[in-house]
């Protein structure tokens, strides 16, 4: 069974540009989460989808971040315009139910110059 | 507010020995879940073990076991018979308040296994 996949693995962009990160969850997992780890800080929750609906977006830092999950399959996280403080590793995770394991993808390392 | 505390920034253990990584948590919820993840140098987050707050027995998965002491609000990870490949960052996490599914992470412990 394929795990959670994320694309790209690395992205280097300039301040003010736009970047879109993609996450493909494990097939059949309705729950999809985005997290990020900024250098030297804890891993922080961004938002949670159940199928195509946003269940909890309390962790989204500001309106420069837009997440979508059309059709309840893959998800995208767009940062527009990117700022220096957006640099970090963005993880996606999926789970079958809330009580079970969250399986994480390999992450996308975003560097904003 | 919910919080996870990992007080050991780094730990060393000799191959084949057991090691305990500490994790304490703070929550006022009765229902919660505790997770441990391993992050090797390659960067991916690998799920290791899960303990539900109502589980009576400590969770075990192969060489990993979770020493769950509810009254003390601790959920330490025990790795038995350490291997060189166990060298990694280890994160303890708790499922958030009852009305959300987010995980709250600790700052992690870097484990180094030496021959």
Can you characterise this structure?
The complex is a heterodimer of chains A (about 110) and B (about 120). Chain A has about 110 residues and is an all-beta fold. Chain A has no helices and 11 strands. The radius of gyration of chain A is 13 Å and the shape is globular. Chain B has about 120 residues and is mainly beta. Chain B has no helices and 12 strands. In chain B, the strands form 3 sheets. In chain B, strands 2, 5, 6, 10, 11 and 12 form a 6-stranded mixed β-sheet that branches. In chain B, a hairpin with a 4-residue loop joins strand 8 and strand 9 (about 75-80). Chain B is globular and about 45 Å long. The model of chain B has no long low-confidence stretch (mean pLDDT about 95). The chains are: A mainly beta (about 110), B mainly beta (about 120). The interface of A and B includes residues 43, 93, 95, 101 and 104 of A.
Q: Most extensive chain contact?
A: A-B, 27 and 24 residues
Uncertain parts of chain A: none
The structural class of chain B is mainly beta
- Please tell me the overall pLDDT of chain B: 94
**Rg of chain B, alpha carbons:** 14 Å
Sequence of secondary-structure elements of chain B: EEEEEEEEEEEE
Q: Low-confidence parts of chain B, pLDDT < 50 over ≥5 residues?
A: none
CA gyration radius of chain A, whole angstroms: 13 Å
Q: Helical percent range of chain B?
A: under 10%
- Approximate shape of chain A: globular
Give helix and strand order of chain A, one letter per element, not per position: EEEEEEEEEEE
**How many helical elements of chain B?**
0
DSSP summary, beta strand count of chain A: 11
Q: Strand content of the residues of chain B, in percent?
A: over 45%
- Class derived from helix and strand content of chain A: mainly beta
Proportion of residues in extended strands of chain A: over 45%
> Alpha-carbon distance between the termini of chain B?
41 Å
Instruction: Work out the helix count of chain A.
Output: 0
Helical residue percent band of chain A? under 10%
């Amino acid at each position: 069974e394929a795990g959670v996949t994320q694309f790209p693995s690395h992205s280097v962009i300039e301040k003010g540009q736009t970047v879109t990160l993609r996450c493909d969850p494990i097939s059949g997992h309705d729950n999809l989460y985005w997290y990020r780890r900024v250098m030297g800080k804890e891993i922080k929750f961004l938002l949670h989808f159940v199928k195509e609906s946003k269940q909890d977006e309390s962790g989204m830092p500001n309106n420069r971040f837009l997440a979508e999950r059309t059709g309840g399959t893959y998800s995208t996280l767009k940062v527009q315009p990117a700022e220096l403080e957006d640099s970090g590793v963005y993880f996606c995770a999926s789970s079958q139910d809330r009580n079970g394991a969250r399986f994480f993808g390999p992450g996308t390392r975003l560097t904003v110059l | 507010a919910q919080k996870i505390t990992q007080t050991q920034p780094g730990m060393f253990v000799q191959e084949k020995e057991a090691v305990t990584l500490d994790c304490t948590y703070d929550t006022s919820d009765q229902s919660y879940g505790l997770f441990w993840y391993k992050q090797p140098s390659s960067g991916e987050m690998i799920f290791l073990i899960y303990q539900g707050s109502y589980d009576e027995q400590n969770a075990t998965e192969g060489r990993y076991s979770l020493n769950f002491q509810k009254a003390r609000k601790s959920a330490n990870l025990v790795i038995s018979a350490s291997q060189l490949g166990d060298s990694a960052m280890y994160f303890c996490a708790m499922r958030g308040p009852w009305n959300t599914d987010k995980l709250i992470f600790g700052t992690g412990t870097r484990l180094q296994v030496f021959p």
